[in-house]
Amino acid sequence: MVIPRKDVSEEALEGLLKEYCLRAWGLNDVESPIEDRIYSARAALDNGDLVLWYSEYEESAYLLATKDLPEQPKADASYDV
Questions:
Q1: DSSP letter (8 states) at residue 27
Q2: 7-16 confidence digits (pLDDT tens)
Q3: Are 72 and 81 in contact (CB under 8 A)?
Q4: How much is the pLDDT for 68?
Q5: N or C: which end of the chain has fewer CB within 10 A?
Q6: What residues contact 50, with CB distance under 8 A and at least 6 apart?
Q7: What is the pLDDT of residue 73?
Q8: Order of strands, sheet of 60-65, starting from the edge strand that comes earlier in the sequence
Q9: DSSP 50-69
Q10: Residue 46 and residue 40: Cα distance in Å, rounded?
Q11: How far apart are CA 27 and CA 41, in angstroms?
Q12: What is the pLDDT of residues 18-47, one digit of tens each?
């Protein structure tokens, strides 16, 4: 489920951003410093390319690209009364 950004402390957000950058780019795969990658990830979060995601199955939160969001079941119109 998507977590509203306002529901996460700045400290927790910094940790999620850092974890995302290390997971997405690793330590040595790019030349830019981690601070630059965190800045880019924060910008992606601000413009909606990334979301804060909580996995009930994994019982953990992380950043996820919106293009990678799981499909949500659609309401069946035949059940509308």
A1: T
A2: 999 999 999 9
A3: no
A4: 87
A5: C
A6: 20, 41, 44, 63, 64, 65, 66
A7: 55
A8: 2-3, 50-55, 60-65
A9: EEEEEETTTTEEEEEEGGGP
A10: 10
A11: 15
A12: 999 888 766 665 667 888 889 999 999 999
Q: Which 3 state secondary structure label does DSSP give 34?
A: helix
The amino acid sitting at 71 is E
Based on its alpha-carbon atoms, the radius of gyration of the chain, rounded to whole angstroms, reads 16
pTM (2 d.p.) = 0.75
For residue 47, which of 66, 70, 25 has the smallest C-alpha distance?
66
Reported as type and span, the H/E element at residue 41 is: helix 34-46
Q: Are 50 and 23 in contact (CB under 8 A)?
A: no
Contact assessment for residue 5 and residue 53, using Cβ atoms and an 8 Å cutoff: no
Answer whether residue 63 shows pLDDT above 70.
Answer: yes
